[in-house]
Design goal:
Layout lengths: L2 E8 L3 H10 L6 E8 L2 H10 L4 E5 L8 H8 L7 E5 L3 H9 L4 E4 L5 H25 L10 H18 L3 E8 L2 H8 L1 H17 L6 E6 L2 E7 L4 H15 L1 E6 L5 E6 L1 E7 L7 H14 L5
Parallel strand pairs: 1-2, 1-3, 3-4, 4-5
Antiparallel strand pairs: 6-8, 6-11, 7-8, 9-10
Helix pairs in contact: 7-8
EC number: 2.7.7.65
Protein name: diguanylate cyclase
GO molecular function: diguanylate cyclase activity
Length: about 300
């Protein structure tokens, strides 16, 4: 049984549309389903209805010319591999790749094999790029988001606050007495505790919430629309119940030890506590230290 790939073709020349479809006919391994349009608006609607496996776009259509076409398409198709078609201009194709396309083809040189190869490579390149991008924004130990990802998400929610007054909260979480645990059991056990905490934070988490490792034994959450002190208090209580527990850890000598872990949590709400994101982080951090046990 043949696998199937859906391709959206942005092309305003009916002869080129016909030739494109002919190039993908009679493949023994893959059934290519090609849907064409000559409109950027219509292409956007098509993607909203069904995301294709690959986008193939002619850079020169009646409503847009050159690299402007690619820029316009990428605004609504960042997670879709894109192949651009150019008349006879390698330099333009290279620039298209620099702007985010996965591959380009010269219309004068397209063959069935070169087109099918470009489709396969475009999909593989996007998968690889996505994986590398995720690694760049993930903490290697816990696989939570790292500081770079935190800064990016914070910029996004702050933009929503500035434009639409959508409040958000920041929570800082710190493991209590973490240094004595490291000193007693070693850093490998400490690392496993960090991984356990990270796992629970990921499991008991809304899809819209951001969870990251802030550094050391500190974690950070960005929670959109958590906009009142009462909601923040309840949210923090819930996180304590999830995280405060006995954790079974295997030591380097294969001994299983049960280590009681508690956390301190502080939060702050944008629009109620801080005048800017930096101040909000500082207030959440101070509230976290206020939550620390006295001994």
């Amino acid at each position: 049984m043949r696998s199937e790939l859906t391709i959206y073709l942005l092309e305003d020349n009916s002869d080129d549309v016909y030739l494109f479809k002919k190039l993908l006919e009679n493949d023994n391994a893959i059934k290519y389903s090609t849907l064409e349009t000559d409109s950027l608006t219509e292409l956007n609607k098509m993607i909203d209805s069904l995301v294709p496996d690959v986008l193939v776009i002619d850079l020169n259509i009646s409503e847009s010319l050159g690299l402007e076409t690619l820029v316009a398409v990428r605004k609504f198709s960042l997670d879709i591999p894109i192949i651009v078609l150019t008349g006879n201009d390698d330099a333009l194709g290279i620039k298209a790749i620099q702007l985010g396309a996965q591959d380009y083809l010269l219309k004068t040189e397209i063959t069935p094999s070169s087109l099918k190869r470009a489709i396969q490579f475009a999909r593989e390149r996007l998968i690889l790029y996505t994986a590398l991008s995720q690694l760049a924004t993930r903490d290697k130990l816990t696989m939570l988001h790292n500081r770079a990802a935190f800064d990016e998400r914070l910029e996004g929610v702050e933009s929503d606050f500035q434009r639409y007054q959508v409040k958000y909260s920041i929570l800082m979480i710190d493991i209590n007495h973490f240094k004595p645990i490291n000193d007693s059991y070693g850093h490998l056990v400490g690392d496993k505790i960090l991984q356990h905490i990270a796992h629970r934070l990921q499991m008991f988490n809304r899809a819209c919430d951001f969870v990251g490792r802030f550094g050391g034994d500190e974690f950070v959450l960005i929670v959109p629309k958590l906009d009142s002190k009462e909601k923040l208090h309840d949210f923090i209580d819930n996180k304590r119940k999830v995280l405060n527990d006995q954790y079974a850890i295997q030591t380097i000598s294969d001994e299983v030890v049960n280590i009681p872990i508690t956390v301190s949590i502080g939060g702050a709400i944008r629009g109620l506590d801080g005048l800017c994101p930096k101040e909000l982080i500082s207030i959440a951090d101070k509230n976290m230290y206020k939550d620390k046990p006295s001994a």
